[in-house]
């Protein structure tokens, strides 16, 4: 087992260099650079733009920029943001933390809700409850999260107009005067702001995951060993949860590793629409501005987490699935 | 002994306050009388883009923290007249040769940390802005034709600006905001540009951010909210006509809301007081509905003025690989015909929902003093376009209904704009349709913005595009012509980037540009501007299309907005210093 883990870690090294180089190359292949916007300013001279370009190192060949960046990376320095004129990690980290406020509860909620729904749907296949949940799931799947967020804002506003009460905030992460609040109220304030974004972020994923769970469960339930278990006279409870469920969740264990990078990659467009100061709006900005090292730095961190996550997944899989053994 | 000393110190401080030379904010800038004004309260607004730094030397965004907390310099404009008036300067005098302006700095002004504001602060700020290694966005404004403008300290309260040549924008240069020499100076001397760049990042403690202006940073939460509080020292020398210290507000809170719809929702919910980004018919109707239904107590001003930006179509004069097209694009008759094909009224109706203004010249329609009313406009007129094209030899149509000349060459060109800008894409489609009606084939593609800019700014005898729709913004009240645009060697001389003037009228414009830029008499300068617009109208290097209008809305909690006549894209809806909370 130890040898296997060591081997896996060794494999990660070439993967890391290959992937970062590819990412860097793709970013560089996009036309223009951080200063292109400035070129349309009727007052800024081309000399100034050329000077800034050389200051940012954008006039050097791509491989040179990559090597410089790699050198920094090996010293655990992700580079410098052009827009913020500050180290990438320094500007990214607070956003990642903000995103986690949504992502962690939403992930927990997802598993807590989606798996029971899936199991229910499989056990009571074609019942009224199953049909209703399937219908809701398809609705959830077909409505994009940003649109759901817009609907949520609309509903909140309508409630406010009718009753004068703002049940949940329309946007943002904290209320005015947040700095003056005592610590406990600060926590409650953030929680109050987070409710709607968490629900919206979860809604889409519930649909997908519960359908998957339902399918897995149905497949397992149709297999011979379940029939055998039932024939042995085991209670339906034991058949379902000890035999069927344990086998049905195996594919989900394989995806657990993927959660690691998703922890830092934010909750998506919900953040943009509901003005949550997470990583998504920030990253979209960086892409629009071609803030090279922010994009590259963020991709690198995601990449490392993805690699670690995959490793963990594989190990977990070996643990739950008796058919897998690493030698 | 200590008590006596404290008494003496406070006495001196009092004496200084008493001797502060006050700037009185004119009553005519606001609709509110000093007697109706209430003090205190928080003004709340939302902005779309995040704040990136507190550092005034590296900031680059349109809305940034340094310009928000301290927006003024030695001189500022009077919104009622547009004239430059002394502000942090008490007075200024211009030398007979018009190359030197001497400013008497107002006495008794203080930084928020209590240190006096003197000539040294301007000198240090200018030094840092003009250090190439700092990379300041203001760098270019301290040079005229590559020659530096220099500042000289005469004494602590007298400052002289020396210009390499006379310049229409001389006072504009002097309007830059000073920053504290006692804070930036020592770092600059010790560590140079690198030291400056590391100062006042977003991690800086708010209490260390020193300001000369109305606001101080109270707190900042990245990507979320900037809270500013009143700078009490500012009120010592900024008063209303009744002698009340300004600003009236205690706090100014700026939410960062990435999405315009969310910003609108905040305004509709009454969570923000002003909505600056009223740009679409949809925004306007939602705000109006909320007001009519009694859900929101607010004021909305629609079509207050055109905005100071342009949308235009430009043809490429440098197309050595296709001489037929090159000669076509260089022909003013062709360009005039194209102008006749632009249905500006339809653009205003369809693209801007009726809330826009047609454009015919390089001067933005909002700069009313500068617009020459007598210039020919070449309005929408397909018959006239067809006639002009016939004069160019395009009399027959081919099987597909497109015009061809005697050699059978079809009248056809490619038109592009940046993808993701629905307004420009709609404009292009309207042009394609109108052109087709008279038999001109226009192939439209929307491409990536950076690629488009790359094509537009490429130079030499053969550039890789036919026609592009794009826009520019920014442009001064002093001299509304772009230093990069008009001169033939200019980086944004988009139609002809061969590096030299090709048409005698380009040479003429180039010369008039230099003359106007160095003319200090406003009336004479406007005359030169009028002449330039006449030549532009003949040459038609760029075909102007239309631009959106400026709309603004505010919650009726607020008082102290500008009188109706001043509310515009240039002056906005209010001076924050004179704004107060009514209820």
Largest sheet of chain A: 2 strands, antiparallel
For the secondary structure, the number of strands of chain B is 27
Backbone structural class of chain A? mainly alpha
Percentage of residues in helical conformation of chain A: over 70%
Query: What is the chains' assembly state?
Result: heterodimer
Radius of gyration of chain B over all CA atoms, rounded: 27 Å
Beta-strand segment tally of chain A: 2
Helical stretch count of chain A?
14
First CA to last CA of chain A: what distance? 6 Å
* Strand arrangement, major sheet of chain B: 22-21-23-17-24
- Residue stretches of chain A low in confidence (pLDDT < 50, at least 5 long) are none
In percent, how much strand structure appears in the residues of chain B? 15-25%
User: Regions of chain B with pLDDT < 50 over 5+ consecutive residues?
Assistant: 1-18
In terms of DSSP E residues, the strand content of chain A is under 5%
Spell the H/E element sequence of chain A: HHHEEHHHHHHHHHHH
Overall, the morphology of chain B is: globular
**How confident is the prediction overall: mean pLDDT of chain A?**
85
Structure class of chain B? alpha+beta
Over all CA atoms, what is the radius of gyration of chain A?
25 Å
pLDDT averaged over residues of chain B: 90
Number of helices of chain B: 15
Description:
The complex is a heterodimer of chains A (327) and B (583). Chain A has helices at residues 2-29, 46-55, 62-74, 88-123, 128-142, 145-163, 183-221, 224-231, 236-248, 250-256, 259-264, 269-273, 279-289, 292-320, and strands at residues 80-81, 86-87. Chain A is an all-alpha fold and 327 residues long. The longest helix of chain A is centred in the middle third of the chain and has 39 residues, at 183-221. Chain A is globular and about 85 Å long. With 583 residues, chain B is an alpha+beta fold. Helix content of chain B is 29%, strand content 21%. Chain B contains 15 helices and 27 strands. Chain B has a five-stranded mixed β-sheet with strand order 22-21-23-17-24, sandwiched between helices. Chain B has a four-stranded mixed β-sheet with strand order 2-14-12-11, with helices on one face. Chain B starts with a helix and ends with a strand. The relative contact order of chain B is 0.14. The chains are: A mainly alpha (327), B alpha+beta (583). Chains A and B meet through helix 2, helix 4, helix 6, helix 12 and helix 13 of A and strand 11, strand 14, helix 6 and helix 13 of B.
């Amino acid at each position: 087992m130890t040898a296997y883990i060591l081997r896996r870690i060794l494999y990660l090294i070439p993967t890391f260099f290959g992937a970062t180089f590819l990412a860097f190359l793709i970013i560089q292949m996009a036309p223009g650079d951080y200063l292109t916007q400035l070129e349309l300013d009727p007052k800024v001279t081309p000399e100034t733009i050329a000077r800034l370009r050389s200051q940012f190192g954008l006039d050097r060949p791509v491989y040179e920029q990559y090597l410089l960046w790699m050198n920094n990376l090996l010293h655990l320095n992700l580079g410098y943001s052009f827009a913020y004129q500050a180290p990438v990690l320094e500007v990214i980290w607070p956003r990642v933390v903000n995103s986690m406020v949504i992502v962690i509860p939403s992930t927990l909620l997802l598993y807590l809700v989606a798996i029971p729904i899936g199991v229910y749907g499989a056990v009571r296949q074609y019942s009224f409850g199953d049909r209703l949940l399937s219908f809701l799931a398809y609705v959830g799947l077909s409505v994009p999260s940003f649109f759901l967020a817009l609907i949520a804002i609309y509903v909140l506003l309508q409630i406010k107009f009718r009753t004068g009460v703002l049940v949940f905030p329309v946007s943002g992460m904290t209320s005015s005067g947040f700095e003056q609040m005592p610590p406990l109220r600060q926590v409650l304030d953030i929680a109050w702001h987070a409710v709607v974004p968490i629900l919206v972020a979860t809604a889409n994923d519930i649909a997908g995951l519960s359908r998957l769970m339902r399918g897995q469960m149905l497949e397992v339930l149709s297999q011979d060993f379940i029939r055998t278990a039932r024939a042995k006279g085991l209670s339906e409870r034991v058949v379902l949860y000890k035999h069927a469920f344990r086998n049905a969740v195996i594919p989900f264990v394989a995806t657990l590793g993927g959660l690691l990078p998703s922890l830092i990659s934010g909750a998506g467009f919900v953040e943009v629409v509901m003005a949550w100061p997470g990583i998504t709006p920030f990253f979209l900005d960086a892409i629009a501005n071609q803030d090279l090292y922010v994009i590259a730095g963020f991709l690198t961190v995601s990449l490392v987490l993805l690699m670690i996550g995959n490793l963990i997944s594989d190990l977990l899989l070996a643990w739950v699935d008796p058919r897998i053994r690493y030698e | 002994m200590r008590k006596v000393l404290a008494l003496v110190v406070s006495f001196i401080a009092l004496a200084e306050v008493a001797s502060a030379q006050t700037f009185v904010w004119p009553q005519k800038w606001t609709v509110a009388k000093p007697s109706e004004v209430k003090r205190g309260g928080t003004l709340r607004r939302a902005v779309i883009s995040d704040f990136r730094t507190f550092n005034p030397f590296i900031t680059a965004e349109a809305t940034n923290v340094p310009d928000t907390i301290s927006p003024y310099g030695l001189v500022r404009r009077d919104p009622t007249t547009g004239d430059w008036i002394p502000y942090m300067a008490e007075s200024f005098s211009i030398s007979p040769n018009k190359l030197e302006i001497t400013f008497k700095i107002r006495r008794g002004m203080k930084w928020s940390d209590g240190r006096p504001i003197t000539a040294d602060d301007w000198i240090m700020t200018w030094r840092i802005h003009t250090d190439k290694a700092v990379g300041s966005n203001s760098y270019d404004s301290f040079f005229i034709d590559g020659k530096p403008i220099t500042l000289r300290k005469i004494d602590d309260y007298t400052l002289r600006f020396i210009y390499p040549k006379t310049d229409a924008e001389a006072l504009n240069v002097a309007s830059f905001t000073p920053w504290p020499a006692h804070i930036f100076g020592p770092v600059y001397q010790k560590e140079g540009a690198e030291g400056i760049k590391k100062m006042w990042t977003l991690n800086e403690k708010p209490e260390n951010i020193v300001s000369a202006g109305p606001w101080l940073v109270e707190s900042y939460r990245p990507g979320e909210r900037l809270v500013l509080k009143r700078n009490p020292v500012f009120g010592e020398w900024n008063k209303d006509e009744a002698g009340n210290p300004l600003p009236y507000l205690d706090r100014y809170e700026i939410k960062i809301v990435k999405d315009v719809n969310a910003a609108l929702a905040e305004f509709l919910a009454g969570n923000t007081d002003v909505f600056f980004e009223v740009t679409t018919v949809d925004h306007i109707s939602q705000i109006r509905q909320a007001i009519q239904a009694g859900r929101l107590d607010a004021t909305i001003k629609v079509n207050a003025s055109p905005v100071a930006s342009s949308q235009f179509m430009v043809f490429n004069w440098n197309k050595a690989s296709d001489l037929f097209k090159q000669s076509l694009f260089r022909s003013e008759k062709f360009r005039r015909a194209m102008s006749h094909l632009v249905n500006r009224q339809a653009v205003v109706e369809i693209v801007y929902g009726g809330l826009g203004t047609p454009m015919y010249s390089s001067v933005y329609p909002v700069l009313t003093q500068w617009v020459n009313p007598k210039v020919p406009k070449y309005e929408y007129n397909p018959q006239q376009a067809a006639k002009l094209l016939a004069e160019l030899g395009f009399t027959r149509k081919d099987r597909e209904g497109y015009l061809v000349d005697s050699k059978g060459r079809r009248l056809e060109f490619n038109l592009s704009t940046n993808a993701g800008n629905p307004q420009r894409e709609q404009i292009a489609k309207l042009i394609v349709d109108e052109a087709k009606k008279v038999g001109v084939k226009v192939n439209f593609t929307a491409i990536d913005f950076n690629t488009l800019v790359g094509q537009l700014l490429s130079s030499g005898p053969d550039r890789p595009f036919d026609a592009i729709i794009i826009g520019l913004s920014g442009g001064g009240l002093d001299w509304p012509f772009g230093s990069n645009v008009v001169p033939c060697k200019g980086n944004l001389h988009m139609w002809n980037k061969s590096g030299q003037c090709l048409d005698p009228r380009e040479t003429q414009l180039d010369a008039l540009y230099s003359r106007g830029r160095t003319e200090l008499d406003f009336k004479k300068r406007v005359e030169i501007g009028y002449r330039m617009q006449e030549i532009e109208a003949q040459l038609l290097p760029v075909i102007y299309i239309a631009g959106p209008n400026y709309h603004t809305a505010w919650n009726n909690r607020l008082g102290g907005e500008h009188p109706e006549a001043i509310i515009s894209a240039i002056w906005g809806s209010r001076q924050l210093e004179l704004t107060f909370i009514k209820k």
